[in-house]
Amino acid sequence: MSRINCERCLRPQNHCLCPLIPSLASRTRIVLLQHPSEVRHALNTARLAALGLRNAELRVGEVFDDLPELIATPGYRVAVLFPAEQAQVLEPYSNGQDSRPWLLVVPDGTWRKARKLLHLNPLLAELPRVSLATVQPSRYRLRKAPEPGALSTLEAVVQALNVLEAPEVFDGLLKPFDALIEGQIAAMGSETYTRNHVR
């Protein structure tokens, strides 16, 4: 017998996260491009970001033919939130000369799949990159980060918004994420979690 999932958060109905998902306004526009393999992932943090932010949009695919229309938003500076040697470090809006808000395109997938999205979408690869000056440690305690400073998509979005829109704080977006992690730890049992994940 298959489990019935919530149509909004895609979680099993008895583990629905919707009551924990906020509805936050932001100056920054977030466009999440999700690799199809992430849609049914247990965490699916890009979906949590899209549901929790009013000025966000989630698209699923590998090739985004409508990308020019997606990023053609008057009044915004456009960049990809993804590490690169030439990436511009994000600063609070209050610090800068340019008062226009950012439209941040955020590829969602494993590092390999996120890079594939950049490769398959030449316009995406041509956009400037932005990154965080300081990365707070990930709250995803269930697996070792593939690279130093690696974050889930949701964590990266929250940290970017916390920098850009300070003193506003977007940590409320992490409530459903934390609940997911705690639920997975509870499901595996504290002994198994301690043995396999706590150093």
TrEMBL record:
Q: Which GO biological process categories is it annotated with?
A: tRNA processing
What keywords is this UniProt entry annotated with?
Answer: S-adenosyl-L-methionine, Transferase, tRNA processing
**GO MF annotations for this entry?**
tRNA-uridine aminocarboxypropyltransferase activity
Q: Which parts of the sequence belong to the DTW domain?
A: 2-189
Q: Which InterPro entries match?
A: DTW, DTWD2/TAPT
Do you know which Pfam families this protein is assigned to? Answer: DTW
This chain belongs to the protein called: tRNA-uridine aminocarboxypropyltransferase
Read off the PANTHER family from this record: TRNA-URIDINE AMINOCARBOXYPROPYLTRANSFERASE 2
Gene source species: Pseudomonas laurentiana
Family, per the entry? Belongs to the TDD superfamily. DTWD2 family.
